[in-house]
Design brief:
Elements: E1 4-9, H1 19-36, E2 40-43, H2 57-67, E3 72-78, H3 84-97, E4 102-107, H4 114-119, H5 127-141, E5 165-169, H6 172-181, E6 185-187, H7 193-206, E7 221-229, H8 233-251, H9 276-282, E8 286-289, H10 291-305, E9 309-313, H11 319-334
Parallel strand pairs: 1-2, 1-9, 2-3, 3-4, 4-5, 5-6, 6-7, 7-8, 7-9
């Protein structure tokens, strides 16, 4: 059985368009993904970013769900930024409005700079605190019984909704948490490919289906990849130069909106401030080309890592070209 194909969207801001246009493009891309047969629409969590607008993920997910017919919607929510009760209330409300379509991905990265993280009043991000916060969230949503005395606190209307919950991670630390709790695992291989394979192997080795928090009977892994698809490889590489230039700016400390494609697909190297190798490593798990070639790349990754879901991130400047990239890939994947 083929792995699910999903969209990963950090809601990028493109040069020449304002923030309202970027959010409107997110809604339109969700409609495209819904029609094209994607399984889920994932939205990442970032704060105070000059590039990504996905800070209020439950609000954005609500817009996606309202604009679509059948596609699932899930958020990459960074738990140290939010009390578990608030997470359960917000996503439980969405799950009440849209039964069977809402999921939650729980991570422990800040998703921002240190000053903004402090302004968010972040809790501890160490694995023990992260595990405790995940367990508390699961309890509020009805996935498991309270581990100690009754809390006397209810997540209304979240209680009993039991939306699927994934653990997010970019290293073996997150993988161990996911496996020990018996939850599905999403590896952030689109920006941390060097640790991804080890994280997947670790998750499978420690997975505990008998854990009180377990929601699945066997390991379930999803992985994120970068992609750009076009009718020709030449055009796809031109479109992908936007993503490479964006990564170069981030690595060099000059992050900003997505720029139009470069005249020279290798022109991003001039923006990397001598850190070309870092950019290449960060973007190593990328597939660029014609639809069948990219689909074949993803099939190979699916088989190699034993994936049940693949999350596709396409940072393409032009909205129409971005939509077409996702449509072409879905057509090739499902053919």
């Amino acid at each position: 059985m083929s792995a699910d194909l999903s969209v990963l969207d950090p809601v990028p801001l493109s040069r020449g368009r304002d923030r309202g246009a970027a959010v409107a493009e997110m809604v339109e891309l969700a409609r495209v993904a819904d029609s094209a047969g994607y399984a889920r629409y994932w939205i990442t969590e970032y704060h105070a970013s000059p590039l990504y607008l996905s800070s209020a993920t439950p609000i954005l997910l609500g817009q996606v769900l309202a604009a679509t017919r059948r596609i699932g919607a899930a958020s990459c929510s960074m738990l140290p930024n939010h009390p578990p009760l608030v997470v359960a209330e917000q996503f439980g409300t969405l799950a009440t409005l849209y039964p069977g379509r809402v999921g939650i991905g729980l991570g422990r990265a800040p998703g921002t700079d240190t000053r903004t993280a402090a302004a968010l009043r972040r809790g501890s991000a160490d694995p023990a605190a992260f595990t405790s916060s995940i367990t508390e969230t699961l309890e509020y949503l009805g996935h498991c019984e309270p581990g100690g005395p009754e809390r006397g606190v209810r997540a209304v209307p979240g209680e009993g909704t039991r939306p699927p919950v994934w653990v997010l991670g970019s290293s073996v630390n997150g993988a161990r948490v996911a496996g020990a709790l018996g939850l599905p695992f999403v590896v952030a291989s689109h920006f941390a490919p060097s640790q991804a394979e080890a994280a997947v192997a670790t998750y499978r080795s420690v997975f505990d289906a008998s854990a009180p928090t377990a929601t699945i009977e066997a390991p379930r892994v999803a992985a994120a990849v970068n992609a750009a698809v076009a009718p020709s490889e030449e055009e796809a590489r031109r479109l992908f130069s936007t993503a490479m230039a964006s990564a170069a700016r981030v690595v060099s400390g000059a992050a900003g909106p997505l720029e139009p494609p470069l005249e020279d697909p290798e022109g991003w190297r001039a923006l990397a401030a001598g850190r070309d190798g870092v950019v290449e490593e960060v973007m190593r798990l990328s597939s660029v080309g014609e639809p069948d070639a990219v689909a074949a790349d993803l099939r190979e990754l699916e088989e190699r890592w034993g994936l049940e879901e693949i999350l596709v991130l396409s940072d393409i400047h032009d909205a129409a070209a971005r939509h077409r990239s996702y449509e072409l890939l879905a057509s090739a994947w499902h053919s």
